């Protein structure tokens, strides 16, 4: 069976069924091929059939479980995002509340100090309080509901690329794979710009000045986000051929303060996910060495309906 002949686990399942006459179920992952450009999850059920006393045959039933697996993964991302958002806001408010009092007390103290040398210490307190306040504002992220307007997403991508141009090395190749038929989208310009900056900057840093950065846009019909099926969505993919995200971090990268970089804050991805959620969208990713893809899923229409997993 060329489809799965390199899967040792499946071969062992076939052997066990022949030896024990017990039905076994398992799951396979089929690699990309010329026909399918993405991995597929296949549920298999292997059982014995014996039409006569002299022969034995195996019955192999296969069901494509890719869609259900994707919906489960999306639900896990949504749960992770909800937990991360609550953590961010609780942490930010706990820090921000006393900062105003700390800064005000330092200002009052500074006015009562005659020595310029001593006032330098209160200036440090004020400066550090302001720095923490800015960090808290970053934790909280842009507030308010989206102020949507009709946007050409390709113009927005080009604008973000210009913003990040100083960070692009001459050895880093930017490839555009845009869908010219993608319609205008109702978006909050500032929020989507910030989400794109966060994702693109992560890819640029991962490439360390060399490699390929691919920007891809597509329209997809009948796409499910969580438990809601949308008639059409826009997908913006940011792909790089860097080293990939370590397996230890892949289940938690959308939690705040999770980062593999010594100078990272671990806030870029949670904030980007929050901004997409305000548009009814979601950020997904897949990563392995040599290929990491972050996909921004944005509904194009307001009409949607609940869609339970198959």
Q: Spans with pLDDT under 50 lasting ≥5 residues?
A: none
Percentage of residues in helical conformation: 40-55%
Largest sheet, strands/sense/barrel: 6 strands, mixed
Using DSSP, what is the number of strands? 11
Structural class: alpha+beta
What does this entry look like structurally?
By secondary structure, this protein is of the alpha+beta class. It has 3 domains: 57 residues, no CATH class; 72 residues; 158 residues, Histidine kinase-like ATPase, C-terminal domain (Heat Shock Protein 90, 2-Layer Sandwich). The protein is built from 6 helices and 11 strands. Strands 5, 7, 8, 9, 10 and 11 form a 6-stranded mixed beta sheet that branches. A hairpin with a 7-residue loop joins strand 2 and strand 3. Helix 2 packs antiparallel against helix 3 and helix 5 packs antiparallel against helix 6. The longest helix is centred in the N-terminal third of the chain and has 47 residues. It is elongated.
Question: Which labels suit this protein?
Answer:
310 residues, alpha+beta, Heat Shock Protein 90, 3 domains, six-stranded mixed beta sheet, three-stranded antiparallel beta sheet, 6 helices, elongated
Could you give the topology of this structure?
Layout: H1 8-20, E1 24-30, E2 40-49, E3 57-64, H2 66-112, H3 116-140, E4 149-151, H4 153-163, E5 172-177, E6 185-187, H5 189-207, E7 211-225, E8 228-240, H6 268-277, E9 282-288, E10 291-299, E11 305-306
Parallel strand pairs: 5-7
Antiparallel strand pairs: 1-2, 2-3, 4-6, 7-8, 8-10, 8-11, 9-10
Helix pairs in contact: 2-3, 4-5, 5-6
